[in-house]
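Q: Here's a chain of 215 amino acids. Please give me its 3D structure as C-alpha cells.
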Amino acid sequence: MASSTEVVLELASVELSGDLTVPSSAEAVILFAHGSGSGRRSPRNQAVAASLQEAGLGTLLFDLLSDKEEALDARTAELRFDIPLLADRLLGATRWVEAATALGDLRIGYFGASTGAAAALVAAAEEHRVGAVVSRGGRPDLARSALARVTSPTLLIVGGADTSVIAMNEEAMAQLRCEKRMDIVPGASHLFEEPGSLERVSELARDWFVDKLAS
C-alpha cells in the first residue's frame, strides 16, 4: 500500500488541501468530490479510496472549499449546492494533476458522492479526457443541463432504500448519452451505513474504474 501525502492544490483563486496516494504501479488516479457539508476526511470516501488503492489505483481526496469558505458554508449552507463552483474546483484539481510531473501520464477518473456527484458530472461534461465517473448516492438532478454532454463511462450507485434518489438517478440514466450503468445496493440508505453496503459500493467502484482505466 502506498503512503498518503498531504498536498496543497494551488488553483487560480484558492488553495485547497488534499491527500494524495499513488501506488507505484498505478495507471490512473481517481479524484474524489465529497458531498455537501463534508470534506476530504469523509470516512465513507476514505473507505472507498482504500479499496481503490488496494487495486493499484491512485486517489486524490481534497477539500472542495477553502477553510474560509467552509466556515461561511457552515453558517449559511450557501456554497455546498453551488454546483458550478464545485465543478470548477474539480476541473482545477484535474489540471493540477495533469501538470504534476509524477502524475501527468496517469488516466483520470472521478468519484462523486451526493452533491459532489453532480459536480463530477458537470466537470466530466467539460473535460472529456476523464476516463470514467462513479456516482455514490448522487444528485444528478443538480447536473441536469450537463448530462447529455457527458462522454465518460458513468456508473450510478444508489441505495435500495433511498427511493427519492433512485428516481433522480433513473431520470439521469435516460438523459445520459455515454456508456452508463445503474446499480442499486439492496437495503442501503443514502449514506450506505448498513452492514456491508459501503463494501459493495467499493467493489462496484473498483471494478468500474479498473475496467475503464487500467490497461
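Q: Can you summarize the key feature?
A: The chain has a mean pLDDT of 93.
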